[in-house]
Amino acid sequence: MSEPKPPTPTPGDTYKGWLFKWTNYIKGYQRRWFVLSNGLLSYYRTQAEMGHTCRGTINLATANIAVEDSCNFVISNGGAQTYHLKASSEVERQRWITALELAKAKAVHMQAESDDSGDDCPAVPPTSGQGGGCRNLEIQSTLRTLGSKVEDLNTCNDLIVKHGSALQRSLSELEGIRVGGDMGEKMRQVTERATLFRITSNAMINACRDFLSLAQNHSKRWQKALQVERDQRIRLEETLEQLAKQHNHLERAFRGATVLPPSFSNPALANKDKKGDASDEDDDNEFFDAMEDPAEFITVPADPKYHRRSGSNVSGFSSEIGMEDQSVNFDELSLASNPESPQPLELEPVRQRRTRIPDKPNYYLNLWSIMKNCIGKELSKIPMPVNFNEPLSMLQRLSEDLEYYELLDKASKSQSSLEQMCYVAAFTVSSYSTTVHRTGKPFNPLLGETFELDRLKDCGYRSLCEQVSHHPPAAAHHASSEKGWTLRQEITLASKFRGKYLSIMPLGSIQCLFEKSNNHYSWKKVTTTVHNIIVGKLWIDQSGEIDVVNHKTGDRCHLKFAPYSYFSRDVPRKVTGVVTDKDGKAHYVLSGTWDEKMEFSRIMQSSKGENGTEGKQRTVYQTLKAKEIWRKNPLPEGAENMYFFSSLALTLNEAEEGVAPTDCRRRPDQRLMEDGRWDEANAEKQRLEEKQRIVRREREREAVKAASSPEEGTHPDNYQAMWFEKLDDPASGETLHVYKGGYWEAKEEGSWDVCPEIF
């Protein structure tokens, strides 16, 4: 037990210590850590909970403190909250009673000072709707009174102007009269008008006096009310900041933990603690993440005899059986020594691409004022300021999937379809590595917008993206390499904002074809979730399952992206996978994280193990030593100030000559945002969006005219893409946009007549 405070603490001090609190008749008194500060008495289960979880708080300004016996005392605020407490000794109880009485006296005194003596409302904090309603009625009454006084002043002002003008005319006429019979009549008129002017002036003076008196009477109360509002706002901001810091602290603590507390590792202790937690009256307010799904399989080191047998076969990596330890180095050596490998430094100078972009400006934006109107809506249909964006288009984000193109280069050289499947699966996982810190939203491409990524001289590939649909937004992507592989995908993004998190669901498929083996692979993307939209630091998670299928051989790789859980024993962002042939026999196990690296292991033997937590029988794989197949490239220096862009992402929006007029690099709002001119970027973004709406309405009108004519009409959404055409894929049975050719030839000729003017 911690040392108690001195017997007579000052009212401004914070008083802390252990007390026993009554919970229920089953568990009786339980030891809790109490903190007395600023007229509030709060308690926690342990001292460690002070940074994040308060179990209850009572305001001493409205509370009653009663002593029961030598060690027990009761604190109640009228029935809503009652704490039955017990100290370890009579001396300790008296110290607490003294501290509580002093804190209560100070809280009552501070509350009395904040209330005006003439306030009609009760002198209690506005904790109920009744107090707030009384204050609102008083303010409205005061405003009506002041308004009537202002109207009186306006009336007096009009009368003074009227009678003053009449008096001036009478004086002028009086000066013009010499001596005549009408002198008496003129003098009487002047006297009457002077009297009216005096009466009106007195009324004006009285009205001003009343207004001044009323304003002075309420000035002090308004100043106090304004100060209270300012203090409340400051306290709210500090509370939000503290919540964000506590959340980040919890996140780092749980993600950095390698073992669980004893209560989780020991089922008996866990059950006991669970019963104890349920006894507190406020414990049902806690929320915990769901426990992670049990692993479907377990890997154990293979018998040494398998290592000895496979160690003599250096070329076994490319055999139909699969990969083994020494073969990885052999394959990498053969790939490095291949004369077909690009040697740009010897052939011709490689273009020096940029390594920095302007730092991200620090613009303040009230996030909640915008996002509160987006709950439950499709974000692609809501205009958003560039403050939420990063200076890249969605087409450029799709092209970032090619950052680890070397995996497909190696896959194209593989002699075994199962070996090739491992590389394709690793490439699938690698496409998510660039998203770990990228919380900014990419620009929604305009209909017909394109993006080319020509790395033929540098890396042996080039790709083209085009926005082929606007509602729903869909982008088509085609990439081909000199190494003999082709990647194509059509992605439609669906997103929903749920208040605390944002879910992004990619719809569509990705396909990869290899010329040498005619292997045809396809897979889909998992769901991306952005957490802490309102409070705390934004962080991204990937969760779901991916099936990579080889439609020629029937091979399959089942990848599982584990969702983040506070109570998981595994590392965060974990990915596991099993490569099986057409008969369902497992050959390889893949494991790692989608933000760092992936490893593979050859399976030598498999067997059924014991049942898991849900009664499912888990498979035990005996594997050879794991070898690394992919590792994430480090971020460039200063990436945190450049939207956490990778080295490839920094070059995507770099201006290039000869690209199509519809290329993302020519988009003005995106360029302005990259340069840090966000106000201009927002204005330009609104202009482009309005221009796109006008074009769509015109296309709808033309479609209606065509439909009314004898000739066949087209629906306004049936936009004809420039470089892609919709075809049925017989291998996968899917319909998607496939590159029809002509773009690179048009670039060589410099002929872009087919491109519309979209910017």
Automatic annotation (TrEMBL):
Region (Disordered) location: 261-284, 698-718
SMART domains: PH
Subcellular location: Membrane
Keywords: Coiled coil, Lipid transport, Lipid-binding, Membrane, Phosphoprotein, Transport
GO CC list: cytosol; perinuclear endoplasmic reticulum; plasma membrane
Bilayer topology term: Peripheral membrane protein
Coiled coil ranges: 226-253
Chief localisation class: membrane
Record domain PH: where: 12-105
CDD domains: PH_OSBP_ORP4
PANTHER family xrefs: OXYSTEROL-BINDING PROTEIN 1, OXYSTEROL-BINDING PROTEIN-RELATED
Name of this chain's protein: Oxysterol-binding protein
